Amino acid sequence: HRVKHMADLYSLLEVSSDASEDEIRRAYRKQALRFHPDRLTTASHADREKARERFQVINNAYEILSNPEKRETYDTFGEEAITDEHARYRAEELNVLIEAVTKSIWNTAWDLIRLPIPNIFITCNTNPDCPTIIKGYRYIVQHRGARGLWRGGLSLTGMRGIQLFTRALSRRALSRTSMYGPRADRLTNIVVGLVVTYPLHLALTLIQASSQEYLKSYNITGMLSGVVRVAKVGGVRSLWRGVVPWSLSRLVAGLAVVAYDVVIEKIEERMITPEVHREYSTVPCPLPVSKQVFLSTWFLARSICRHVVAIGASLPLQLAAMRMQVSVLSDGADSTYRDIWGIEPQVRMNGLASLYSRGFWLETFYYAFTGKFTYN
Q1: Closest CA relative to residue 144, chosen from 118, 110, 116, 121
Q2: By three-state DSSP, how is residue 137 classified?
Q3: Where are any strands of DSSP class E within 211-362?
Q4: What is the mean pLDDT of residues 107-122?
Q5: What is the per-residue pLDDT for 376?
Q6: Which is more confidently placed, 331 or 137?
Q7: CA 150 to CA 156: how far, in whole Å?
């Protein structure tokens, strides 16, 4: 739908709103010749000033309508979205919001398909009776049935929706401030992540772990009921138990990947020349088949290793955060995991390998579905 006042620029050039680029160019030349101040040598000073103003307006109209991107923005949001920085950002934000909703729906659908993997992961890493993936799977099926593998699906969908809605409201609240723009987006994502997403994530973890005997008595059936239960049992502050290792896991993963990318870039500078890169991207590729196979294998291995580095760096902190979350309702059983250094007793009791043996490849497999890394 075109905005009401969008026809102004088209009417200035005397063309229709669906005019082609050639029609707009011809109309501009006609109007420019008609109102060019230098052609009105015999006109009065007032008429020449009016013509000069009209000529500037025509130039502005042509500058917008001759640029496909500006024309699309103008057709959708009006001239204000082009001339005013904040209005332009608000126009772009609508497109970003539409894209975010689409991605959120897609990611939620994928998460629901992959949901048994994190459920088994949580069970294996919070229940001493499930030291292997197979035993974790059997434990869930035994106590919750096959449907238990998808426990938390509705809450996961609700969490996605609440997160998206809260971000939209936060951006709207910041729209009248001088910070409005990319900086506000980053601030919004951090604040929403810590204040809104984390308590919901904690409740979701408890729902997924609730097939275990010591959590059954709490009967956590939904995300919001989980939040209320945690607040009643441990106080409001307990809704953020584990937030430090949870945040650090993403930071550490991000730093590890940045370091990895630097190393890989140095290696590729010596191994793959810019010409080879360019030829590899050309369709059809002029490189020999053997070289194409080598480069394809290299890029695939590079992506997999990047993924492994991210998970390897962040997994111990993820486990610490998870155990702290579960300990909210089981202080008697898991009091050793009440602080961030819950990693230490885990290593002392089960060895260093235990930080990875119960979930490293599960995590890798889970995120490999869409190439989504843990630091995102």
Answers
A1: 116
A2: helix
A3: none
A4: 82
A5: 33
A6: 137
A7: 10
**What tokens appear for 208 in the block?**
């997924």
What value does the mean pLDDT take over residues 139-164?
85
Give per-residue pLDDT as tens, 174-227.
666 655 566 667 777 788 888 888 999 888 888 888 777 666 666 677 888 888
- 268-301 per-position pLDDT tens digit: 888 887 777 777 777 677 778 888 888 888 888 8
Residue whose entry in the numeric block shows the structure tokens 């042509």: 62
- Torsion on CA atoms 94, 100, 102, 106, rounded to nearest 10: 180
Asked if 329 and 230 touch (Cβ cutoff 8 Å), the reply is: yes
| Closest of 106, 101, 27, 23 to residue 59, by C-alpha | 27
Tokens of 141: 């099926």
Q: Rounded to whole angstroms, how far apart are CA atoms 113 and 107?
A: 10
The answer to whether the beta carbons of residues 322 and 201 sit under 8 Å apart is: no
Q: What is the pLDDT of residue 256?
A: 92
Tokens for 177, please give them: 């401030």
Q: How wide is the angle at C-alpha 89 spanned by C-alphas 86 and 90, nearest 5°?
A: 85
Enter the tokens of residue 84: 């005013």
CA angle 124, 130, 133 (to 5 degrees): 60
**Residue ranges with strand state E in the chain:** none
For residue 341, the model assigns a pLDDT of: 53
Residue with tokens 């006042």: 5
What sign results for the dihedral spanned by CA atoms 194, 195, 200, 206? positive
Query: Smallest Cα–Cα separation from 201: which of 80, 326, 305, 286?
Result: 326
**What one-letter code names the amino acid at 302?**
R
Residue 30 has pLDDT above 90, yes or no: no
- Amino acid letter at 111? D
Average pLDDT over residues 58-68: 83
Q: Which residues are within 8 A (CB) of 31 and not within 5 positions of it... i.e. 6 or more apart?
A: 12, 13, 14, 58
Report residue 313 as tokens.
Answer: 């760096």
CA 373, CA 376: separation in Å to the nearest integer? 6
Residue 34 corresponds to which amino acid?
R
